[in-house]
Design a protein that fits this description.
The structure is a homodimer of 292-residue chains. Chain A is an alpha/beta fold. The first copy, chain A, has two domains: 173 residues, 3-Layer(aba) Sandwich (Rossmann fold); 112 residues, 6-phosphogluconate dehydrogenase C-terminal like domain (6-phosphogluconate dehydrogenase C-terminal fold, Orthogonal Bundle). The longest helix of chain A has 27 residues. The two termini of chain A are 29 Å apart. Chains A and B meet through helix 7, helix 8, helix 9, helix 10 and helix 11 of A and helix 7, helix 8, helix 9, helix 10 and helix 11 of B.
Chain lengths: 292, 292
């Protein structure tokens, strides 16, 4: 597998920093440049050996690069792609770590229209509450999954090379369509967050909310853990993956309305069937997960 | 504090068995009789020292008792109360461990109308996936909460005596109205379970459900943990606490519909405010919990 001579991280935090560390340990990268706007964070990245050099200038940094990883919030990626377009070397692979993919695909098409053969959108599934270069660590991607969503224009050799690099970080690599990616992650990640936000808002509307929060126990703790997630990040994800998310939220509303009707009517048989279907599926999921 | 001469457990599982063990360790109980229908379970209770004698006959067992704890599913409590009514000693305290309270209050009124001064509904908050006498253990109630919901007829000395016994088990005791109890537990326990069941059902309706379950990660795991709960138990709770639960589910539906509208309209400001309110409240709750 070809070594990366020069890796540029546009965004030097948990995702980018941990990618750098893993490639360094695998001996698969030469120079790593960390780009960002937060000087203290860049200084820390340098001290911790996450990167070899730092820069606040993405345009200059990408010169001579053979791999660029966009590891910022998705909201900053369009601006960065547009900025680097003129100075990007012809065969430099460009990828990203965004947790939605159709919107990022649209950015590649809009901002790097002449470079699409070398663009490969990606989503390393290694969420964490931590951020910044100090959160970067060896082994973050060990046993984790990375989804790559190639464009029709993406060269097969680019897919193979980037997949091999992620595998060298310890990750399991999956290839799928961006639409399928966004559908799956709406269902199992985005919508649970949004349902948990809605639940918290309904709870906060109650007259006795303080007593409720006082008696909330382990079921509440686990169910609402994701409701404590970063607001701006989840607002952006909800808007970026709007179609899939709205469809799933409407399904949840329909299923909740059905549940209300069953309880109001005291329909013991159908209510049992409804809960059993959910419970059995959750128990099976857990059993299969523990087999692995 | 007066020692209990004869405690009768109607239902010899986690809740009743652990109450017995805690009182035995505190030296606050003489004889403990375990009543049930599952002979193997009663045998185990005896072997493990959870009870001193066993019986399948509740009517005979309560003779000479000064404390009876109903620790079966709520669905069996009415039948048991009616059965023991004729043989219950005049000043025997009767309590229960049911997780809904208005419905159990109604059972006391219906089945033990001449004994209400000695009846005190209760809810030890020590849920567990485990059941049976083998699950009973010392220390289950250490640091846990017990809510007692006195009837207007309940004598003050009964409230004081039972509160003292629960405190001797290590629990923190709260007194509140049954309506308030059911409102609080609908909000922070029952509704999260029902929302999680609805979410699982919506997920199972998807064409790509297998791929979704395959990519489900830690957020999904925690959010849906309670969806794996016992179907019959949660069906009964939903029906027993129907009014409070339905009101809260409707609030959740309203808040979800509002969220759909904000996302569809791309209302960045209000969407941010919506998520921030939820996230801040959850972060604050966690911080306060960790202080204790």
């Amino acid at each position: 597998m070809g070594k990366v001579a020069k890796l540029v991280l546009l965004g030097t935090g948990l995702i980018g920093g941990s990618f750098s560390l893993a490639l360094k340990r695998a001996g698969l990268v030469g120079e790593v440049v960390g780009v960002g706007r937060d000087l203290a964070n860049l200084e820390r990245a340098l001290e911790l050996g996450v990167v070899d050099t730092t820069s606040t200038d993405a345009v200059a940094a990408v010169q001579g690069a053979d791999l660029v990883l966009l590891a910022t919030p998705v909201g900053q990626m369009g601006r960065l792609m547009t900025a680097i377009a003129p100075s990007l070397p012809p065969q430099c692979i460009v990828t990203d770590g965004g947790s939605t993919k159709q919107d990022v695909v649209a950015l590649y098409r809009e901002c790097l229209p002449n470079h699409l053969a070398w663009c490969l959108p990606g989503h390393p599934i290694a969420g964490s509450d931590l951020s910044g270069a100090a959160a970067a660590r060896y082994g973050l991607y060990e046993g984790r999954r990375v989804v790559l969503t190639p464009l029709v224009e993406t060269r097969q050799e680019v897919v193979e090379r980037l997949s091999a690099l992620w595998r060298a970080c310890g990750a399991e690599v999956f290839h799928m369509d961006a639409v399928e990616h966004d559908s799956i992650f709406a269902a199992v990640s985005h919508v649970p967050h949004l349902v948990a936000f809605a639940y918290m808002n309904a709870l906060l509307d109650r007259r006795n909310v303080e007593a409720c929060l006082d008696f909330a126990a382990t079921g509440f703790r686990d169910f609402t853990r994701i409701a404590g997630s970063h607001p701006a990040m989840w607002r952006d994800i909800a808007l970026a993956n709007r179609d899939a998310v709205v469809g799933d939220l409407k399904s949840n509303i329909a299923r909740l309305s059905e549940l209300v009707a069953l309880i109001e009517a005291g329909e013991v048989g159908p209510l049992t069937t409804y809960i059993e279907r959910a419970s059995n599926a959750r128990v099976d999921w857990d059993a299969r997960r523990k087999e692995h």
